[in-house]
Amino acid sequence: MKKRVGILISGRGSNMAAILQAARDPAYPAAIACVIANRPDAKGLQTARAEGIPALCIDHTSFPSRETFEDEVHRALVEHQTDFVALAGFMRVLTPHFITRWDGRLLNIHPSLLPSFRGLHTHERALEEGVKLHGCTVHFVVPELDAGPIIAQGAVAVWPDDTPDRLAARVLAVENALYPRVVGAMAAGRITLRDGRADVDGAIPDTSLVSFA
Ligand code: GRF
């Protein structure tokens, strides 16, 4: 039986779409359990529905607290027999109330080479700092924001004439290549959280790439 991944989004959903695309291959180890958005206007919901994936909106604004919202997300994930969860551009901070229930089974992709540039506006900040390499990180989620054990990273070169948008586009291409591979490896049981570190069994192909393109 394939492990089932639930994907949480807030917007565009290109990382979600990349995982859906990978899952079309019968040999891909993960099945998509459901896609959940916290915003009704999340474009990714339409993409998922067009693929016949159960896609639901759980609008956080209609809940009295973070915890009641999280309870409903948890309930929906369980209802769809979710084994593990991938946050993919999910822009709502999750509390320990949710995170502890999915401990070791909750992944996020962040658009920087952590531990540099936690939080928002990572591409602008990378340019301000003058770093020469930038990229993305897939990590386990822990209560401290963007601080969980690192599973995989992808890097791009920063160009002298980069703008935040151009840099973001090149990083996103690496994100879209990296995340499906990590989700597949997770589903295959090759990634575990052990003693506060991500234990990755064998190399994940192409996950530590540096792209000069
Ligand atoms: C990505 O850059 C991701 O790293 C960040 O939010 C963005 C989401 O993009 N967390 P998309 O919705 O997957 O296209």
Domain module count:
2
Oligomer: single chain
Globally, the shape reads: globular
Which H/E pattern describes the elements? EHEHEHEHEHEEHEEE
**Class by SSE composition:** alpha/beta
Bound compounds, each kind once, are: 5-O-phosphono-beta-D-ribofuranosylamine
Number of helices: 6
What is the CATH class designation of the largest domain?
Alpha Beta
In the CATH hierarchy, what is the architecture of the largest domain at level 2? 3-Layer(aba) Sandwich
Q: Briefly note the CATH topology name of the largest domain.
A: Rossmann fold
Strand content is 15-25%
- Could you give the order of strands across the largest sheet? 3-2-1-4-5-6-7-10
Q: Helical content, roughly?
A: 25-40%
How would you sum up the major sheet? 8 strands, mixed
Mean pLDDT: 95
The poorly predicted ranges are: none
The separation of the N and C termini measures: 38 Å
What does this structure look like?
- With 213 residues, this protein is an alpha/beta fold.
- The chain has two domains: 1-102, 3-Layer(aba) Sandwich (Rossmann fold); 108-213, Formyl transferase, N-terminal domain (Rossmann fold).
- The chain is built from six helices and ten strands.
- The strands form two sheets. An eight-stranded mixed beta sheet has the order 3-2-1-4-5-6-7-10, sandwiched between helices. The protein has a two-stranded antiparallel ribbon with strand order 8-9.
- It binds 5-O-phosphono-beta-D-ribofuranosylamine.
- 5-O-phosphono-beta-D-ribofuranosylamine binds next to helix 1, strand 5 and helix 6.
